[in-house]
Amino acid sequence: MTRDAKTLGDLRRSGYRPRTIRAEIRDNLKRKLAAREELFPGILGYERTVIPAVANALLAGHDFILLGLRGQAKSRILRQLTTLLDAVVPVLAGSEINDDPLAPVSTWATRRLQEAGDDAAIEWWPREARYNEKLATPDVSIADLLGDIDPIKAATRRLTYADPEVIHFGIVPRTHRGIFVINELPDLAPRLQVGLLNLLEERDLQIRGFPVRLSLDILFAFSANPEDYTNRGSIITPLRDRIASQILTHYPPSAQVAARITAQEAWLDRDGVPVAIPDAVRLLIEEISIAARDSDLVDPTSGVSARVAISAIELLASNLERRALLTGEKHPHPRVCDLPPLLPALTGKLEMVYEGEQQGPEVVARKLVGQAVKKVFEARFPEIVAAPSTATAGPDAPGPYAPIFSWFAGGQAVALSDEMPFLDYEAELRRVPGLFALAETQGGGPEETAFWAELILDGLHQSVKLARHDVDSTVSYKELLKFQLLKTPRRGPRRGTGEVN
After folding, report:
1. Are 250 and 50 within 8 A, CB to CB?
2. Which three-class secondary structure state does DSSP give residue 25?
3. The pTM is what?
4. How confident is the model at residue 487, as a pLDDT?
5. In total, how many domains does the chain have?
6. Per residue in 10-63, pLDDT tens?
């Protein structure tokens, strides 16, 4: 299609033929599928689930709804539907609802073509302008969506209220020949949902009793959170029946895919300080989100957004940047003691159940970080084996952790901080015998080895083998305190029993 046409006559001579929005999207989608082009760039983890379902709905000419928890890329997918539109389409110049010059639907367009004929001017409408989106909020009115009578227009043009041209069209008819999206559909008041029924089935609308029969050509798409069906609102049954396809979204299938999404979205390119975050640390941060989704303390109906990991890794980069500025290090490397500063990324994004609210968001967030550390520790390092004669691992326990336990049993402690220069940080960890021998099994340079050494200590703490104390920005590891029962001196048997205290 050429943009050279300036009038209706030019357009006729160019060979242009009108197409419905569904036919247009279907043709472009078929071309992309045949060429094996990526349909939704930047959408990861949906290659075998959501994306094929959306493609099928579009090939079928369906209006559809994306149903899923927060942070599952619903809005991003919907906004990329414009890539399936033609680069430009012709519209009759001056039309409020973007009438096709060869297939007008409004009264104004019909009159304009009768007056000007082939001399009627046309304009070219880009694909980006053919997408409109509305967030369902309590203040949305039927006039916002469909339109209302405009008394100023009637007075200016000296029209009676019986003339359809006194109508001021809302956002839906102004999206004629485009894509209209409503986000969080259940939040739309039921009476407004009723106003959409004719649009989805009969493709026409009525405004203020006007017998307006505009054959609107719109692809409707919606998004919703399952929580909304019970907590804030619901989709009325007739409207759900008219939405032809319901597509379920989901969280990334693995920590690896989640890490790719986070790397794509997070701002880590800090000016002046080269911040490098190894893959192992990225996966550790993703495990925090996964732990939250599996936690009994977090409300599963609200979900845990991908924004949790994105915000967390950005805070991690900021903490590295801050340490570099304080210590003068050129290439700061993540540490396990960098994880507590990430708590602000979690505490505001997690919806707790009653038990979680009782414990408090920060306590829950620390538990989730600890669970993620423990999972990584257990996946990468040997199992902790207890001594045959004891119930818990201790100084006499066999295996690679024996030197570590023995050292701490002697009353020694390790104190680490996210503000320590690396040489001091490494020297503090090297005081623990046998620790670096285990850490070096993971490979990497001195910074990564020190990271793994600290992770071992925290993994032992999460496994209830070492005590940990947090004071401001300092983390210290000590021998796990014995139960008071074991420390009390033996006394005689309780009176009337054979038990020993």
Report:
1. yes
2. helix
3. 0.86
4. 41
5. 3
6. 999 999 999 999 999 999 999 999 999 999 999 999 999 999 999 999 999 999
204, 225, 248: which is the final residue of a domain?
Answer: 248
User: How far apart (Å, rounded) are the C-alpha atoms in residues 33 and 46?
Assistant: 16
Burial 456-483 (b: 16+ CB within 10 A, else e): bbbbbbbbebbebeeeeeebbbbbbeee
Structure-token pair, residue 260: 């790719």
Task: Identify whether the C-beta of residue 132 lies closer than 8 Å to the C-beta of residue 17.
Answer: no
- Say how far apart CA 185 and CA 74 lie, in whole Å: 13
Closest residue by Cα to residue 435 from 418, 416, 454 = 454
Average of pLDDT values for 240-268?
95
CA angle, residues 268, 271, 276, in degrees to nearest 5: 40
Tokens of 441: 């099994």
CA dihedral 9→11→14→17, nearest 10 degrees, is: -120
Cβ burial of 89 (10 Å; 0-12, 13-18, 19+) is buried
Q: Is 495 helix (H, G, I), strand (E, B) or coil?
A: coil
Residue 20's domain is classified under what CATH number? 3.40.50.300
- Measured CA distances, 86 to 41, 82, 188, 445 (Å): 18, 8, 31, 52
Exposed/middle/buried for residue 376 (C-beta within 10 Å: 0-12, 13-18, 19+): buried
Residue 266 pLDDT level (bands cut at 50, 70, 90):
very high
Q: What's the rounded Cα separation, in Å, for the pair 86 and 194? A: 32
Q: At what angle do helices 279-294 and 446-462 cross, to 10 degrees?
A: 20
Same domain, 227 and 324: no
Range of the domain at 24: 8-248
Which tokens belong to 408? 């701490």
Across 71-80, 82-91, 152-161, 235-244, least confident range? 152-161
Q: Is the four-CA dihedral 339, 331, 275, 290 of positive or negative sign?
A: negative
Q: What is the mean pLDDT of residues 331-360?
A: 94
Exposed (0-12), middle (13-18) or buried (19+): which is 230, by Cβ within 10 Å?
Answer: exposed
Predicted pLDDT at 143? 82
Q: Is residue 175 located within the same domain as residue 54?
A: yes
Beta strands 414-417 and 474-479, pairing class: antiparallel
Instruction: Report whether pLDDT(71) > 50.
Output: yes
Q: Is the pLDDT of residue 387 over 60?
A: no
